[in-house]
Amino acid sequence: MPTGTSTTAxxxxxxxxxxxxxxxxxxxxxxxxxxxxxxxRAYWHNLDTGKKGEIVVxxxxxxxxxxxxxxxxxxxKRKQNVIVQSEPIETNANKIKSLRHTYKTEASALNxxxxxxxxxxxxxxxxxxxxxxxxxxxxxxxxxxxKGIKKEIDSTDWIISKVTHNLSDNGYTSAVEFxxxxx
Length: 183
What we know:
Layout: E1 17-20, E2 24-31, E3 39-45, E4 52-58, E5 61-69, E6 75-85, E7 96-103, H1 106-122, E8 125-131, E9 143-147, H2 151-154, E10 158-168, E11 171-180
Parallel strand pairs: 1-9, 3-7
Antiparallel strand pairs: 2-8, 3-4, 5-6, 8-11, 9-10, 10-11
Protein name: Late control gene D protein (GPD)
C-alpha cells in the first residue's frame, strides 16, 4: 500500500475526518521552502555495460508499463515501468536531489526516485496539533480537513502522517501530525 493514498489495504478509500480549532490545545504550521527540490536523481548499476545509469524524476514524469524486449529481440509477456517525460526537465542542478544509494537495477532506481519525489511533495507543508480530548479513531493515512485556524490551513487538503495517543493523569490526548495531501 503506497504512502499518501488514503486507502485501506484492500484499496477502499478511508473516510475523511474534520478537525476544528476548538478541540485543540496547541498547533504549529510550517512551510518548508529551503529544501524545495524540483526533481530527484537516482543512479543504478547497469550489469550489461558495467556503467552507471541515471534516472531523473520531476513533476512532468509519468510512469507507463510497456512490454519488455528480451536480449534475443523477442517481446516478453512481462511488462516493465518506463519513464515518459511530457516536457523536458528544465531545472537548476542545485534543485535536483541526488540519492546517495546506487541501486542494483533500473526498476529499483525508478521506484526509489518516485517514492522520494512523492515524499518531498507531501512534506512541503506540515501541520501539528495536540487535541485536548484524544480521539482513538485517528490513524495515519486518514484524509483530514481543518477548520477555524487560518485560511491557508483551512483550504489545504491534509492527510494524517502520525498520531501519538497519550493516556496520563491529565487525561487522554492525541498529538496529530498532518502533511499536505498531494493526491
